Amino acid sequence: MENELENIIAKAAELSSLIRSSGAAMEYESRLAEISRDRGSLELLDRLTAAGREIHEKTELGETIVPGHSAEYQLIEEELKDNQLVKDFLLAQKSYLQLMQDVINLIKDPEGGNH
After folding, report:
1. Helix (H) or strand (E) holding 49
2. CA 1 to CA 18: how far, in whole Å?
3. Residue-level pLDDT at 69
4. pLDDT digits (tens, 9 = 90+) for 18-55
5. 33: closest CA among 101, 16, 41, 46?
């Protein structure tokens, strides 16, 4: 039993190392470091995240979402169009999160057939 646990822990460490050295993870870490040094981009990302959270909460409550219904959303949209750093970060984050989801799905169902 203890040997089995040690084997699982060793495999988990190996998986962690493989994930960290993947292109998706390295790109995400690079973009995260870049955006962390840009206060304006961080503030835009925070506002974008808050807007997304608000939309999610409203949909959970069954409320109708009207695209671009406020000046704040329109301002965020305009700022995002002009901020390549935030767009690049979001793309890298999406790729990294997809990798993590694929790994989780494979752990849950090793014979899922998608990989």
Report:
1. helix 39-60
2. 26
3. 65
4. 999 999 999 999 999 999 999 999 999 999 999 889 88
5. 41
CB-based contacts of 34: which residues, under 8 Å, 6+ apart? 85, 88, 89
The total domain count for the chain is 1
Q: Quick check: is 104 in a domain? A: yes
- Residues of the domain holding 74: 23-108
Distance, in Å, from the CA atom of 107 to the CA atom of 15, rounded to the nearest integer, reads 11
- The pair of structure tokens assigned to 34 is 């870049």
Residue 86 CB: number of other CB atoms within 10 A? 21
Q: Is residue 11 domain-resident?
A: no
C-alpha dist (Å) from residue 19 to 2, 10, 16, 104: 26, 14, 5, 12
Quick one: residue 113, left, alpha or beta (phi over 0 = left, psi -120 to 50 = alpha)? left
